[in-house]
Amino acid sequence: MQTSVAIIGGGLAGLHAARLLHAANIDFLLFEARDRLGGRIFSVDETGSVSADGFDLGPSWFWPQMQPAIGALVAELELPAFAQSSDGDVVFERMSREPVQRYQGYRQEPQSMRLTGGTNALVRALTAELPENCIFLSRKVTAAALGADGVTLTVSNSTGGQESVQAGHVIFALPPRLLEATVSFSPPVSTAMASRWRQTATWMAPHAKFFALYDRPFWRQEGLSGTAQSMVGPLVEIHDATTATGSAALFGFLGVGADERQSIGEDLLTHACVQQLGRLFGEKALQPRATLFKDWAADPATATKADRTGGAHPSPDRRPWVDGAWQPFISLAGSETSQTDPGYLSGAVDAADRTVSAIIGSRRAAANRR
């Protein structure tokens, strides 16, 4: 296979980059290691299957007031959104031997927003604008070799076979740390560049999310917002995750480290989370109709061994992500490379905008020199 631009990664950054290239009439091929598009965007039903009215096991919020890139894309795609439910009191669990404390809630500022249908609405809308024959799932790029006219990629498929892809330019739309750990480069990238990629934390990679689904959002009728903080755990931060169509749920971030989660196991963690929701929200919380659990640290398409600890949010960094002989031929466009909102949905949009703008600018400059 041969293409002007190869995009590695079918998350928000990769799909948005593909959309921009397609609009500019630049041919591309997109390769995604998973058997689905979306990357860390993962909106599912109660069985854990991707759904058009899903619960967000990955990112769920965006803040258009302070993140113009994602706000503009949502508006351009005409995607309906709604405010995160936060009306009512919040509860706080300080110590296991103390009763749960209840406090008056507060107005969110800036307002957290969610997409109707889940964040996967972005994936569906972007994918709908792309030619199907340019997207390849279950394709993992394992190597990149630099030639005089571009890059040769080695791509593994789900059956264990390999194929080569020739590309004039490659956009790596995945976290820098994951790129450094999973793709070999010939010639090797510089030591400084590899070190920087490796040291850039992947947002969400150390974390796990738990959802409890209910027939109705009973906590609202009791004057509770669904928001809770806990120093007891296993959930340390809890919110109302009810969908725009009224499918009721509470979700929380686990405060248990990745190694400890692996040791305890999902079944025991699920039981402990449900028991905690019972302490915080009463007996009705003890009878969810379904639960969902997503440990991102156990997802090899997101996390590396280095991601099992830490969890610091990446900081904006304006230094170039690529140097040396590779600089004209590859770009990094994962959310972590954003100069405005690294790690966030908006960061993925910003990084894709920046990368494709540079490619278009380079092509125009080359054309003017002819």
Q: Can you tell me about this structure?
A:
The radius of gyration is 22 Å and the shape is elongated. The two termini are 27 Å apart. Helix 1 links the parallel strand 1 (2-8) and strand 2. It is α/β, with parallel strands linked by helices. Strands 1, 2, 9, 10, 11, 12, 13 and 19 form an eight-stranded mixed sheet that branches. The protein has helices at residues 12-23, 68-76, 120-128, 176-182, 191-199, 218-221, 258-264, 266-281, 345-369, and strands at 2-8, 28-31, 43-44, 55-56, 81-83, 89-93, 101-103, 113-115, 135-136, 140-146, 151-156, 162-172, 184-186, 208-214, 224-230, 235-240, 248-254, 290-295, 330-332. Helix 2 (68-76) crosses helix 9. It has nine helices and 19 strands. The model has no long low-confidence stretch (mean pLDDT 94).
Write the layout of secondary structure elements.
Layout: E1 2-8, H1 12-23, E2 28-31, E3 43-44, E4 55-56, H2 68-76, E5 81-83, E6 89-93, E7 101-103, E8 113-115, H3 120-128, E9 135-136, E10 140-146, E11 151-156, E12 162-172, H4 176-182, E13 184-186, H5 191-199, E14 208-214, H6 218-221, E15 224-230, E16 235-240, E17 248-254, H7 258-264, H8 266-281, E18 290-295, E19 330-332, H9 345-369
Parallel strand pairs: 1-2, 1-12, 2-9, 6-15, 10-13, 12-19
Antiparallel strand pairs: 3-4, 5-8, 6-7, 10-11, 11-12, 14-17, 14-18, 15-16, 16-17
Helix pairs in contact: 1-3, 1-9, 2-9, 4-5
